[in-house]
């Protein structure tokens, strides 16, 4: 039924873009203080799509290590930075 709706485009799969109806968000450019990350850094020199492939072992290995030894994380927060062709995990 939704595919036959006249308000939809691109073969009825996505809603039309109505950019004029939404105001542009306001923003402010700020400079963050220097931060240092203490912990383990891993670099992967393959595309980001490969990292999130369910058959890839890299993200599972990090989770399994945490499940076996929760103290392997020095802090409660850790994340993924530099989402280009090279991945860098910092915590």
Automatic annotation (TrEMBL):
It comes from the Bacteria. This is Right origin-binding protein.
């Amino acid at each position: 039924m939704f595919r036959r709706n006249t308000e939809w485009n691109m073969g009825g799969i996505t809603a039309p873009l109505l950019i004029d109806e939404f105001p542009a968000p306001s923003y402010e450019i700020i400079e963050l203080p220097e931060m240092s990350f203490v912990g383990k850094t891993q670099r992967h020199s393959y595309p980001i799509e490969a990292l999130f492939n369910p058959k890839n072992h890299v993200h599972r290995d990090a989770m399994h290590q945490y499940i076996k030894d929760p103290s392997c994380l020095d802090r409660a927060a850790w994340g993924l930075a530099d989402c280009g062709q090279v991945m860098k995990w910092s915590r």
